[in-house]
Design brief:
Helix content is about 30%, strand content about 30%. The chain is of the alpha+beta class. The strands form 2 sheets. It has a 5-stranded antiparallel β-sheet. A 5-stranded antiparallel β-sheet has the order 2-3-4-5-8, with helices on one face.
Amino acid sequence: MEWRSFGASVIGPGHVATGKPNQDAWASFHHPWGDGVVVSDGLGSKPHSDWGSAAACRAVEIAVAELSQSRPEDRSTQANLLARIREEWLRAIKPLSPNDSAATCLFAVVDLSGRLHLGLLGDGAVVAVLGDDSVTALTDDKEGGFSNVTNALSQSVGPESWQVATVPVAECKAVMLCTDGVSDDVEDLSGFVRGLTKSVASLASSAASRRIRDMLSNWPVPKHSDDKTLACLVREVVSDG
């Protein structure tokens, strides 16, 4: 089995109008020690949140790489991964202040033991499509509190602030990660993910990324203003022959 990734991030009309940069970021990695995709949304109230979101993407890749070299019992503990992500993020944003660079963090990571680790800190959505077309989803619950209060990477954020899940790799076909600029506008998130992953399954990664960018750039929801980022990790079965 092999994994490939694709995605796109577009600046929202609100930031175009105010001259601010895109505060979202995404990245993917494919190495012998693991595959993954990361999405991050810098908190709009923070002056360096665009730097913080880019640092979050780097932090996940570095954390996974470091854990791949550790003892098997340490690799299997999600709390160790979450703690390392925070440590690497704090290192990556220097010399900026963590408070000025706060950002959400969403990831899907395949490890050497054949497991897919999902994580969500803050808002947005992580949705895994399983072999039977059912889904496992991590989403922010804005009905349970104030919608303007968002968990984010910070000096003190702990594992209890994350939502996490683990899925056997063999049971998963694809994972989609998106910031709240996308997830807040989609009523049927499961249906949206199934339809999107099927529509780009036959495309090369570069073509799939272009299609996603076109979709985000021509977002059909009236008066939307937020930055929008969407990234996918897709499993492909490769024949030995």
